[in-house]
Write a structure and sequence with these properties.
The structure holds two protein chains of two kinds. By secondary structure, chain A is an alpha/beta fold. In chain A, about 25% of the residues lie in helices and about 35% in strands. The longest helix of chain A is centred in the first third of the chain and has 16 residues. The chains are: A alpha/beta, B alpha/beta. Bound molecules: adenosine-5'-diphosphate and magnesium ion (MG).
Chain lengths: ~475, ~260
């Protein structure tokens, strides 16, 4: 007899929960492939100032010059000529819910946005295709001077702030994919937290790709002034497609003296997406930057959230979960660069590999000369669900200073038969027992997530388990 | 034999072992509703092996024989199918599951079993479950914080044993096996656990108490006592058999068994 959880799984299984797809209705879609003309066209469509157009064109040069990375995941099947770099779904951005087109509303409703908003959202910036179509911000936040808009709007309405910080943390020539994003970016969020302002409720954005072969290149910039606090939450879901899609985002964050920023992502791209993301933050005196990063789905993910610890007292943290199931390669981890003395960092990585899935931890702890009294701790735990699944660990350390305390622990374990038997002897099916063990394994990270994300992550893992046992 | 007349639980000529090594060597046992049986025997005689085989541990192999429960041979069933028929094993060495809270685990377990046994609409709501859990925790004098602790993780020996009985209380089995639940308990804990077990017992269910000490049997009174040596039941009797063992030890049985076996 089917249990509650099994019925749920069946329901989810028949209609991959976020795998539904709207008929494509676009106002503008760039032709496939990338050259100067496409970049010019994007900039023109967006009615951008000249400096941004120049920025894009310069980045395009870097992109064309740089070779693909030769380390990490296999990117050889990625065909840059088969991608639409820009899709604009509606004539202009909706300002209120009423203005958002009906078919997009339906999608959002199925993703639960209005409900979430009613509950506790401070503001919602939801990205549909390459353009932000819906956006709202609570009035009290606005009164406090907090800015939470899509990046395109920010370029128009806050040019001084954007110009000052855009591309300073992740320069366009940082790596091939940062260059690509800099050339064709569209959408993403801009968050500005003024001095001393604490944003007590998480700011959330929902992302969704809906065009075959469409790249999504959102660009996010968060600035936390001294003593400010913000928690930015981003969840991504994508429908299933037959040919490979590319998602290549850039996130830049600046946390000034005594400020704190937490950036939470749970991403579940469909299993044909290349997810190549550059996330980097700079933390100044006594500031704290925390990345909480969950990677499910996608064909290939390469993502190493980084914190540059610029001044004494800065603290950086990465909590990362990766789930690699059949045919997937999750190459994830974190980077901590200790530029200043008396800084501290922690990376906790949990990975799960299933079937032919491969989860790699790739991390770097770098301590510059003169950065004494640095403390850093890295813990990476891998869980293998069966005989074929695979995990690798690449923990790089570049320590140029002696008075430091660096810890590193790595474990690899298999789901123990005794644990499965114990749970099954209490009435749990093998799949239920398996997902319970896996969810327990990542609990140190899920407990850091907003509740609905924790529930969603546990559910996704349950769904993954369904196929793993006979 | 009509179905009503069939006993709740019957083992016939059970031969079983692990990794090709035969441990249970021709075991017979009949247990009916309303009965408490004690299974005694020295360490290594195969008591836990029997418990695992009944519960369906995948590593154990059955070479011969049958186990009938409510008239069905359960040997082909998965452990969860057996649990959903009302079988329960309190483990001698319960396994820790990091990151999984007692409450989350038990709610899923209890509702899986309830739906299978009593019907799809008999699952407990989160609120009903919490109430039931609190009630059973109180019965076993366990702190409410157990609900949010990770399953058996960092539990003391005694806490693990109590937690097993807590699970039994919530799952309401019809046939429960308690494998050395008494070991590692101090006298007060033993009394609490025994009181709990006695309170749970009812004429509609049966219990098999595995122990190698007679001590627990003065708290939980068995109707029948069996002695196991080298994978066989070599003596069966009433409660007086346990007392005799307490006085004489297992050696006289071993000697006697060796004689009859030769
Ligand atoms: N996993 C195992 N692998 C091999 N032998 C085992 C295993 N478990 C138990 N045994 C052996 O089976 C015999 C019976 O053990 P067990 O059933 O635990 O006895 P008891 O519970 O009566 O102390 C012992 O000789 C023990 O060494
Ligand atoms: Mg034993």
């Amino acid at each position: 007899m089917a249990t509650e959880a099994e019925l749920e799984l069946q329901r989810l299984g028949t209609e991959y929960k976020y795998g539904f797809r709207d008929p494509e209705q676009y106002v503008f879609k760039s032709r496939k492939g990338l050259d100067r003309e496409v970049v010019e066209q994007i900039s023109w469509m967006k009615n951008e100032p000249d400096w941004m157009r120049q920025f894009r064109l310069k980045a395009l040069e870097y992109f064309l010059k740089r070779p693909l990375p030769t380390w990490g995941a296999d990117l050889s099947e990625l065909d840059f000529d088969e991608i639409h770099y820009y899709v604009k779904p509606t004539e202009r951005q909706g300002r209120s819910w009423e203005e958002v087109p009906e078919y997009i509303k339906q999608t959002f409703e199925r993703l639960g946005i209005p409900e979430a908003e009613r509950k506790f959202l401070a503001g919602v910036g939801a990205q549909y295709e390459s353009e932000v179509v819906y956006h709202s911000l609570r009035e009290d936040l606005e009164r406090q001077g907090v800015i939470f808009v899509d990046m395109d709007t920010a370029v128009r309405e806050y040019p001084d702030l954007v110009k000052r910080y855009f591309g300073t943390i992740v320069p366009p020539n940082d790596n091939k994919f940062a260059a690509l994003n800099s050339a064709v970016w569209s959408g993403g969020s801009f968050v500005y937290v003024p001095e001393g302002v604490r944003v007590e409720i998480p700011l959330q954005a929902y992302f969704r790709i809906n065009a075959e072969n469409m790249g999504q290149f959102e660009r996010t910039l968060i600035i936390v002034e001294p003593g400010g606090y913000v928690h930015y939450v981003e969840g991504c879901t994508a429908p299933i497609y037959s040919t490979a899609s590319l998602h290549s985002a850039v996130v830049e964050i600046i946390v000034k003296e005594g400020g704190r920023c937490r950036y939470t992502t749970i991403q579940n791209w469909s299993k044909n997406v290349y997810n190549l993301v550059t996330k980097r933050a700079a933390a100044y005196r006594d500031a704290t930057m925390e990345w909480v990063d969950g990677n499910l789905g996608s064909k290939v993910t390469m993502k190493y959230p980084a914190v540059w610890l610029m001044e004494p007292g800065a603290r950086g943290e990465v909590l990362s979960v990766a789930f690699a199931s059949d045919g997937q390669h999750q190459d994830a981890g974190g980077k901590m660069v200790h530029v200043a003395p008396y800084t501290s960092s922690q990376i906790i990585s949990k990975s799960i590999s299933k079937g032919t899935g491969r989860a790699s931890y790739r991390g770097l702890v770098k301590v510059h000369r003169g950065a004494h009294h640095v403390r850093s701790n890295v813990v990476c735990d891998a869980l293998l669900l069966d005989e074929q699944s695979r995990t690798d660990t690449y923990p790089y350390m570049e320590i140029e200073e002696e008075q430091v305390s660096i810890g590193h622990e790595a474990t690899v374990s298999k789901v123990a038969e005794e644990q499965l038997f114990y749970l099954q002897s209490r009435g749990l099916s093998e799949a239920e027992a398996m997902s319970m063990i896996v969810n327990g394994f990542i609990e140190p990270i899920t407990k850091e997530l907003p509740l609905e994300y924790a529930v969603e992550l546990n559910r996704l893992i349950q769904l993954e388990m369904e196929g793993s046992v006979g | 034999m009509t179905l009503e007349a069939a006993p709740l639980f019957t083992i016939e000529n059970l031969h079983a072992g692990i990794e090709g090594k035969e441990i249970l060597r021709g075991l017979d046992l009949v247990i009916d509703r309303g009965e408490i049986h004690a299974l005694m025997g020295p360490n290594g005689s195969g008591k836990s092996t029997l418990a695992y085989v009944i519960a369906g541990h995948p590593n154990y192999e059955v070479y011969e024989g049958r186990i009938l429960y409510k008239g069905e041979n359960i040997l082909e069933m998965t452990p969860d199918e057996r649990a959903k028929l009302g079988l329960f094993l309190a483990f001698q060495y319960p396994t820790a599951i990091p990151g999984v809270t007692m409450a989350n685990f038990l709610r899923l377990a209890v509702n899986s079993v309830r739906k299978a046994r009593y019907g799809e609409d008999k699952a407990l709501s989160p609120r009903e479950f919490r109430r039931l859990m609190r009630e059973k925790l109180a019965m076993l004098r366990m702190d409410e914080s157990f609900a949010t602790r990770y399953l058996n993780e960092g539990f003391s020996g005694g806490e693990k044993k109590r937690a097993e009985i807590l699970q039994m209380a919530l799952l309401e089995p019809e046939f429960a096996i308690l494998d050395e639940t008494d070991s590692g308990l101090d006298i007060d804990a033993l009394r609490t656990v025994a009181d709990g077990v006695n309170a749970l017992f009812n004429p509609n269910m049966a219990m098999l108490i595995i122990t190698h000490y007679q001590r627990v049997l003065s708290y939980i009174k068995p109707h029948f006592v069996h002695v196991m040596l080298d994978g066989k039941i070599v003596a069966s009797g009433g409660p007086e058999l346990a007392e005799e063992l307490e006085v004489k030890g297992y050696d006289w049985l071993k000697a006697e068994f060796a004689e009859t076996a030769s």
